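User: I'm preparing a small set of examples for a lab meeting where we compare how different chains pack in three dimensions. I only have the primary sequence for this one, and I'd like the structure in token form so I can line it up with the others. Please keep the answer compact; I'll paste it straight into my notes.
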Amino acid sequence: MRTAKLSLLTALIPVFFLIFLLSFNVIVYGDYAIKGSSQSILLITAVIAAFIGYRNKVSFKTMFQKIQENITSVKIPILILLSVGALAGTWLISGIIPAMIYYGIQIANPNFFLPTCVLICTIVSLSTGSSWSTSATVGISLIGIGKVLGIPTGIIAGAVISGSYFGDKLSPLSDTTNLASAISGSELFTHIRYMLYTTLPTITITLIVFLVLGLTFSTSGDLDITTFKNAIKEKFNINIWLFIVPLTVIVMIIKKKSPLISLFVGSILGVFFALIFQPNLLIELAEGQTMNIKVACISIIKAITIDTKVPTSNELLNELFFSGGMKGMLDTIFLIICAMVFGGIMDAIGALQTISNAFLNWAKSTFQLFATTVASCLTVNLSASDQYLAIVVPGKMFKNAYKDRRLASENLSRTLEDSGTVTSVLIPWNTCGAYQSSVLNVSVTDYFIYAVFNWLSPLITIIYAYFKIKIRYQHSN
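Assistant: Understood. Below is the structure token output for the 477-residue chain.
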């Protein structure tokens, strides 16, 4: 039993260590920090927190009970993450994701190139759930095309990043979307639907800005997408019937079916459509000679469980046509479990409550609570230089504060995404900023002001909080 409450300074010691070690971690490991070193640091700081708790008469039994409760609370999100991995794999080998990209790039029009960039990257990122894959493939090609048309690279990069992070924030295939809902305790599709209130106005304003910007440039040349189309059709049988699967999942989501059931149905339909429309691809992936049960099982099970790569004649598409399956979700799952260990011990020793009380003492209003959450996400992105930790740390820190104010958990998950996910790319030393700058070959300072969606998102969520727009309370409809 704890004999005394922790002081604010003592409660913040594990947080200070976490930020310091993560900052050093990014310097050492760079983009590979998410592969395990960040998770290890969460465990190290959990040990530091446990030592503080032990010195303050908190039993290890109490700490382990909290850890168990925390891990138990994310069992459904973990299953959803595994289901998302399976879905991504089956949608790749069935041609669903390639079909979305195939038809999506055809809406490109030289007269409206910049808003078209946003839309193309929006479609691709929604399909894949990855801003990094989108910018590294379609984004690179759009940069090249834009240069030919005479548009400044920074503006094109801003359009690409704005569209890419729309899907990273909103797609059920995105690890950050799943992470934000898991950390806050919000159901995945409830989280996605609630984000639409701030995300749709933000992307609309973004499109208008780029439409106006596009009209200030006189473009020339043709938007050649033939290479991409041919490369896709060389490997996949592309047709409109493939859209039956995503439309079915969308209808189930709208009808508020269980996420696990919706994703399971989407995966099963993906398998059937792969057998119907992509038998040649299945033979190739299994390195077989003819289509049979063995070949089908090898290709399908591989796509669901481990990684699948579909090589094409276009190098840019090769990175996009890759799925890690369930295995690809393990890094994020590992991160969630380690975060639950850290958060559980911080909760057990009373540190989270002490920090939460300190913020609540300042955050007298709901607006101040939202604003403080946004500021915390930005601070972690600046100091820890990691997009995932900008969701995890504030999420664990403010969860009880939102609950105490009787605010529904989706308020927190939406704010985490509006401020943690999308702002990471605006910081040069953040892994996301460094990655995008390197891949698109443009400095963060050049595209910062043009990444409209990314810096506008936290402003929109603060405006909503100030005017009390779409603030949902517990047990409200």
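A couple of notes for your slides: The longest helix spans residues 188-215. The longest strand covers residues 308-309.

User: Perfect, thanks.
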